[in-house]
User: Fold this.
Amino acid sequence: MTLTPAIEEALDRFALEQNITRDEALAVIAENWLIGHGYLPREKSAARDEGGVPLDE
Assistant:
């Protein structure tokens, strides 16, 4: 997958701030988008921090 330099930089910053890998960051972002657009139910969310709290909250 080819991403723009701006998206690459933003993805790296997000991963660093969340203390997660790049692959985990991509999974969190995809899951949040899918939930937000109704493709995935919120209660099935796996994108959670170590305390069980969704990373987007």
